[in-house]
Amino acid sequence: MRRVRSRGLWVGYLLMVGVCLAAFGFYLTEARRLVGANYTAMVTDLVRAQEDPDRLRLVLDSLLDSPDRIHLAQLNELIWRIPLRIQGLRNHLLRSDLAPARYTPYLEELTYVESRLPTLEQVIARVGIDNQLTPEEGRQLRELGMELEEALAWSYSELNELLHRASADQRRFMGRLTLAVAVLLLMLLVAIGGVLLMLHRLHDQRETMRHLSLTDQLTGLNNRRRLLQEAGQAFVRGERQGTPLALLLLDLDHFKQINDAYGHPLGDEVLIRFARLLEACARRMDVVARMGGEEFAILMPDSDIAAARRLAERILHAVRDMPLPSRAHAAGLTVSIGVAEAGENGDFERLYAQADRRLYRAKAQGRDRAEG
Description:
Elements: H1 2-49, H2 51-65, H3 69-95, H4 100-130, H5 135-213, H6 224-241, E1 245-252, H7 255-262, H8 264-281, E2 287-292, E3 295-301, H9 305-320, E4 335-341, H10 348-364, E5 370-371
Parallel strand pairs: 4-5
Antiparallel strand pairs: 1-3, 1-4, 2-3
Helix pairs in contact: 1-3, 1-5, 2-3, 2-5, 3-4, 4-5, 7-8, 8-9
Keywords: Membrane, Transmembrane, Transmembrane helix
GO molecular function, one term: diguanylate cyclase activity
Cofactor: Mg(2+)
C-alpha cells in the first residue's frame, strides 16, 4: 500500500511536468507566431506602398514625354491608390504598440502628401482636356511630382527601418520573456518536486512509525497492539459471515534458564528463531504476534478448535526439532500452548482469558504440550 501511494505521488508529478512542458511549448509557439504576425501585415503593406514613389516618377516621366490618355489613367490610378495605402499604414500604426512619437513625423509627411494630391489631380485634369502640356504645366507637374515622390520615398523608407527595429526589439523582448517564463516554470517544477519529495518522506516516516508501533522490535512479529486491532476486525467479520475464530497462546518452557545460563543475547537469538518457526508453521492469513518476553500468540481467522489443535501439534514437534545456537545446543527447547475458540457473542478478552487458562493448565501438567 505504501509503495502504491508513493508511486501515485510520482506519477502525478510526472503528469504535471508533462502538462507544464506542453503548456510552455504551446506558449512558445504562439508567442513566436503572434510576434511575427504583429508586424507582418504592416511590413507587407509598406513594401507594396514603397512601389508607389518609383511608379509615380516613371508615370510622370512618361506623361511629360507623351501626354496621352494611358499615362493619364495610370496617374489617376496612383492618385486614387496612394491615399488608401497611407490610410492603411496609419491604421496599422495606431493599433500597434509603437510609441506615437516614433512614427508621428512620418505620418505628418504622408498627410502632407495627401494634401498635395488634389493639386496634382487638378493639373492632370487640365491636361486631360486636350492631351497637351504647356511649358508651365509641365514645369508644375514635374516639381509637384518630384516633391510627392521624395516625400513618399523618405516616409516609407523611414517607416520600414522603424518597423524592422521594432520587430527586432520585440523579438528580443519575447526571447527574454520566454527565458524568464522557462526559468519560472523550472522553479515551479523544482518547488513542486521538493514538496512531493517532502510529502513522500513524511509519508514514509509516518508509515515507518506506524509499522514500528505495531511491530515487535526484536522478532519483527506483530506486537500486542497489532494483535488487538486484528482481533477486533476478525470478530466483526466472524459475526457478519458466521465464521469461527481460534487463538493459540504459546509460552517457551524454562526460557529463563537459557537466559541465565547463556546470557540474554543468546536468549534473543532463540526468540528470533522461534518467531521464524511460528511464521513458517502458520498460514498467511494467521496473525502471529509476540505478546512480551517468551509469550507469543497466533490468531486464526476462519478456523475452529480442531484446526487450532492441529497447528499446535505441528508447532510442538517443530520446536522439539528446532536447532538452538551452538552453545545452547544441548539444552533443548519446548513450548506450552493454550488453544481456544471464540464462542457466540464473545469478545477478544474472553477468548484470550480462555486460552490463557489452558496455557497455564499445559504448564501445570508438565509443559511441552497443548491444552484446548
